[in-house]
Design brief:
CATH topology of the largest domain: Rossmann fold
Structural class: alpha/beta
Number of helices: 16
CATH architecture of the largest domain: 3-Layer(aba) Sandwich
CATH superfamily of the largest domain: Glycogen Phosphorylase B
Number of strands: 12
Shape: globular
Largest sheet: 6 strands, parallel
Mean pLDDT: 86
Radius of gyration: 22 Å
Number of domains: 2
Helix content: 40-55%
Strand content: 5-15%
Low-confidence stretches: 72-84
CATH class of the largest domain: Alpha Beta
């Protein structure tokens, strides 16, 4: 399995999904070798063996290596390739000197390569180098199937497929259309399409994503299977016992502050609610390329005394945020799945999700609204913060619903896809 991140070192939902998935697959009797660009040594390896691509030496004289190297071009990164960067970090990337760029290009042909494992300036270089390393790894290990997560690892999957002759399963967690709308980065789109065309089977995280893959990428519907994500059951975290000191309702947005996640709609909704009742607080937790723009909008609407920006939260900080929340809102413009609502429901927070999300396909006890319908969203929030009986129903039934969405059930479907690919 090729992935870009693995807990506890994560920047988004992908690492969390991979972790739950590998644990589910272990219960189904699968043995997983998980390759990441950079391992830190403190990964939970109970269900999986993590292989650190930074430790793999490649023979740069090898004909296979030269063949792969010919097929890769190293490209300057575009803004929509770095969804996890803060504006300040992005500024640094833009101002990188020509000499620095040249130095980075040379290092890809080194015998060993130290990956940053981040979504940063040298992402395309790392994607290409990861593929070169993947060929070496595929020749060293014994396995039955290759599973590659998202476009960053598709070239690696193809390289392993070519070296081993084993079937390739490409897992699409988000498409370029989800990340950017119609302003697609053609390089990323081409990598997505190349990977899925080469794959023996494709797993999509929702029917929404499956339709995009079939209709926009032109992938054969017969080889695309939907397997909805799941969530890890957890013991009630200590932080859930936090006493709420404010006699105010708290409405939370938690996600990357990017076009895809619809943060501007959340702010417009906050403005509408605060015109009716100032005794509500809104929290936007996360970072991303639209953060500065959102701060300015909040200031312009004169709601900054009721609106809080926390920056990126992870782990226990997320649990603490949910413990303080009365409502969670995910107004995504395009969300292939959306794990965060499940995390909120798991910690007894009622949720409102956009109809344009994969998770809306499987949840009964979530309020679903079109992302652009700020009036509808405001009404939904108002109902949950003003009528305790309504909130109670969504909390109680929502928790039970999420507890039944286990990775071990998703893993059964993934194993079926593997068998299908192997026996094809």
């Amino acid at each position: 399995m090729f992935g870009w991140e693995f807990p506890p070192h994560i920047t988004g939902g992908l690492g969390t999904a991979c972790y739950g998935m590998t644990k589910g697959l272990l219960k189904q009797g699968a043995e997983v070798l998980f390759v990441v660009p950079k391992a830190y040594g403190d990964e939970d390896q109970q269900a999986v063996r993590v292989i650190n691509a930074s430790d793999v030496s490649v023979d740069i004289q090898d004909t296979e290596f030269k063949e792969f190297a010919k097929n890769f071009t190293y490209l300057e990164i575009g803004s929509n390739l770095v969804p996890y960067l803060d504006p300040e970090e992005f500024e640094k990337i833009i101002n990188e000197t020509k000499t620095e760029k040249e130095q980075r290009k040379k290092s890809i042909y080194a015998k060993k390569y130290e990956f940053s494992g981040k979504y940063g300036v040298d992402l395309m270089e790392e994607v290409s180098r990861f593929a070169l390393v993947a060929g070496t790894i595929a020749a060293q290990y014994d396995f039955d199937v290759i599973h590659a997560h998202d476009w960053h690892t598709y070239y690696a999957g193809i390289a392993a497929q070519k070296v081993s002759g084993k079937p390739l399963v490409c897992h699409i967690h988000a498409t370029e259309f989800d990340r950017t709308g119609e302003d697609v980065n053609t390089i990323v789109f081409d990598i997505e399409k190349t990977g899925m065309m080469a794959a023996d089977r494709v797993i999509a995280v929702s029917n929404l994503t499956r339709n995009t893959v079939i209709n926009r990428h032109g992938i054969n519907p017969d080889k695309v299977f939907t397997v909805h994500n799941a969530i890890e059951p957890v013991e009630k975290p200590e932080s859930v016992n936090i006493k709420k000191v404010l006699n105010e309702k708290v409405v939370t947005f938690l996600g990357r502050i990017t076009f895809q996640k619809g943060p501007e709609y959340f702010i417009e909704v906050a403005h509408k609610i605060l015109q009716r009742d100032r005794n509500v607080r809104f929290v936007m937790a996360g970072s991303g390329d639209m953060l500065n723009k959102m701060i300015k909008r909040v200031a312009k609407l004169k709601i900054a005394d009721r609106f809080h920006f926390t920056g990126f939260l992870k782990g226990e900080a997320v649990d603490r945020m949910f413990a303080l929340s009365n409502v969670f809102v995910m107004p995504s413009v395009s969300e292939p799945f959306g794990l965060v609502p499940l995390e909120a429901m798991r910690t007894n927070v009622p949720v409102i999700v956009s109809k344009q999300s994969g998770v809306a396909e499987i949840l009964k006890y979530a309020i679903k609204v079109d992302f652009w319908d700020v009036d509808g969203m405001a009404d939904a929030i108002w109902g949950l913060i003003k009528y305790d009986a309504v909130s109670k129903i969504f909390i109680e039934y929502g928790k039970a619903e999420v507890d039944s969405l286990k990775w071990e059930f998703a893993a059964v479907k993934i194993m079926d896809v593997y068998r299908n690919a192997v026996n094809h």
